[in-house]
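Researcher: Let's try something more involved. This one mixes different molecule types, so please make sure each is placed in the same coordinate frame as the others.
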Amino acid sequence: MSEALPKRSEDYSGWYNELVKRADLAENSEVRGCMVIKPYGYSIWEKMQQALDKMFKETGHTNAYFPLFVPKSLFEAEEKNAEGFAKECAVVTHYRLKTDPNNKGKLIVDPEAKLEEELIVRPTSEAIIWKTYKNWVQSYRDLPILINQWANVVRWEMRTRLFLRTAEFLWQEGHTAHATKEEALFETTQMLDIYATFAEQYMALPVVKGVKTENERFAGADDTYCIEALMQDGKALQAGTSHFLGQNFAHAFDVKYQSKEGKLEHVWGTSWGVSTRLMGALIMAHSDDDGLVLPPVLAPIQVVIVPIYKGDDGLKLISEKVQQIVEELKRKGISVKYDNRDTHKPGWKFAEYELKGVPVRLAMGQRDLENGTIEVARRDTKTKETLPVADVVPHIEQLLNDIQNNIFQKALEFRNSNITKVDNFEDFKKVLAEKGGFISAHWDGTNKTEDKIKELTKATIRCIPLDAVAEVGNCVYSGAPSSKRVLFAQAY
RNA sequence: CGGGGUGUAGCGUAGCCCGGUAUCGCGCCACAUUUGGGAUGUGGAGGUCGUAGGUUCGAAUCCUGCCACCCCGACCA
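Model: All components are placed in one shared frame. Result:
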């Protein structure tokens, strides 16, 4: 705990990995590619869940739960979806173990217990859910179905990183079914807007809303909408997706309804999700070389109070004073921790709470008792001031708002200054190599060009921004005509 | 799956070339002194050296097999 973190400027990924572990957010587990989310990390995830869940419910969605396993025959029903995920599926083939006759005390898979049909551990739940929806839908009166589930999924990734890419991860997945294309499209963009609002207002993370190109589209969707964020090292991170599924799953699973006019129609679908990857985005967006910087609205502890004292009597006098402040903060709905442990010194605690990103730290010592003051330190700017005790609670209420706004503004300025317009391929390569960030450039609309650029630069089209303005131009690679700019970046 | 690397205490490591039962730091435990930016001292606990075999009087060290993990590619929310 005494060693400093690696510096972002020297070893960005080392900094990230160490920060996640040292701030007690998560650690690697005994299972390859799977993490243990520790209590402090999980409580941030819970705050995210609560905020999102509320937004989903306010827009008419309800939660349900579907099985972890998907029979292979269902999984393969929507061909593109199956093909897209096939390479990274965990598969259950047996249902029993037995003691190894040749190796005492060890277990082997019982060859007698082979499943008739393999079960896929869900990498996403469209298949099992649409199979279920088939039974739920007969009439237009049964629509829409607006369901979300909070679940874990498994994608057998080659290479994993805590929160950003793990073999098992937690997420929410919304799956909706509608009578008309218009309704489904509205749903798709509505959920995208919710994600963008959540990212900006809760995570203090500015995002670009856009549409994916065909290459980057969700397997089985007609269109994939996304929010894209920029990390401090200049790489982009896909922070959430909302898919317009068209009638693809309705066709695959034969989900039809009878309209008012008595006609049989296939239903229209959407699905949308965000995952524990958001934790990675949150960590990378704001934190510095001293540790985590958390936006106050998602911080499990918003205010920490550290006493500085000599002897038990000294602590008692400070504690009496502090207790009043604690009560007052709690009444205002501010989460506060009074760390009166005698096992660590104040300096140790200061460093510890900075590492953990607690937005506001109060310190009270003998000097303050005499002057009727208290020291207030903010994590985002690392500044300190001494205030009269009487003023501190209203000050903190304001301060938490200020911090939330400040880190958003800081991230926004960083993002905006790292969107570079580029009009030829030499500049494209140069900007990517020297500056990174988003590159706003014209593209001829073909997969071929996109693939070629990826091959040459590792950059992909993150999205076609929804607010892209019409502009006549030429593709940055092929020179073919183009009508608007798209955003390229190297991505996580 | 291709190419490279590493497994020694909770974590990070030295020792390996040249064989003699394991070094140092952090952390942990106890006591004392400390407490306005990661305290100090003294004492202490903790290791089948990844695993299975081989060579040897003797293996962390040499040889062989296996396993795991990490890095670089390919793949990816």
